[in-house]
Amino acid sequence: MEDFDTIDRRILQILQKRGRISNAELSEVANLSPSACHRRVQRLEKLGVIRDYVALLDPRKLGRPTTVFVEITLSGQADEVLDAFERAVAQIPDVLECHLMAGAADYLLKVVAADTEDFARIHRRFLARLPGVAQMHSSFALRTVRQTTALPV
Q: pTM of the predicted model, to two decimals?
């Protein structure tokens, strides 16, 4: 991120926490004129540094308070096995994240569910049918200690 100055970094920090802030408010907080601020935000968007703007939803209020981390080991490492698994897991709406890992497991999934019964449904309907799976280990999060979407800039 060496091409970004302190003003760019300040804009990014603010937008990560207050994505709906108006340009007028953002320019005031960043100590820029509104037009200069708007140009910088457009530049950061064009560069792909700002990928998107989203609403972060409260999983508890949507009846999905249970987070389960699922470690998956595949039967093989061939490209076809990995590709088939990744295509299938991308179709599961309850999977928020899927990471190809280095270490004991091949993939780590972050799954949301209403409760243990709902996770059992997700497991039966989707996870147990994923192609190429040799082993699966699920861990239920008891409490979220820290969660952020803001990257350090």
A: 0.91
